[in-house]
Amino acid sequence: MFTAQLKIAYISLLTSYILSSCTTVDIYEKTVAIPGHKWFNSYKPEFSFEIKDTSVPYNIFFVIRHTEKYNYNNIYINLISKQPESDSIIKQQKDITLATNESGWLGTGMDDIYEQRVKLSSEQGAYFHKAGVYTFSIEQIMREDPLEHVMNVGIRIEKKPL
Asked: How do 26-33 and 99-100 pair as beta strands?
């Protein structure tokens, strides 16, 4: 009986240790719904988040959820960023692959809905040089306006794992 209690205590302790060692690296993730699943290029979702630690690199991801009826293998966006206490903006054009002819839709799918988190930062990560609130906005710049069958878009910022 003592041995069974000891085993249960050991398993409980081991489980607690494993769960406590799994720390999340998430800093910020938010998505917004695209009204009517039709993304007009005039609609530029905006995301604000606070960076406190400027000494470490971060991964920046574009998050998109779309249906299988989305007409393209890619999406062109402008990622517009604004630093704390600054009025200047940085605009970066990105061509993001959503599908290939060999593999079909990338990312994860359930029924006819697909979601992807596409890394926008380099392998070394991105550094935020000032502490404070950063604002990113996303503008779709495809030729089709509105861009149909896009359900949600967003941004994910996380500390780069070491």
From this structure: unpaired
- Residue 111 vs residues 36, 57, 66, 79, 88: alpha-carbon distances, Å: 19, 36, 11, 29, 42
Please state the φ and ψ torsions of residue 159, each to the nearest 5 degrees. -65, 135
- Collapsing DSSP states into helix, strand and coil, what is residue 3? helix
Start-to-end Cα distance in the chain: 44
Contact 120, 93 (CB under 8 A): no
For residue 78, CA distances in Å to 65, 101, 118, 140 come to 17, 25, 14, 6
Decide the pairing of beta strands 46-51 and 99-100.
unpaired
124 DSSP 8-state letter:
T
Q: Are 125 and 27 in contact (CB under 8 A)?
A: no
Comparing C-alpha atoms, which of 149, 153, 155, 157 is closest to residue 71? 149
For the chain, the domains span 26-159
Measured at the CA of 18, the angle between CA 14 and CA 20, to 5 degrees, comes to 115
Look up the pTM and report it. Answer: 0.81
pLDDT digits (tens, 9 = 90+) for 69-97: 999 999 999 999 999 988 899 999 999 99
Say which CATH topology domain 26-159 has.
Jelly Rolls (2.60.120)
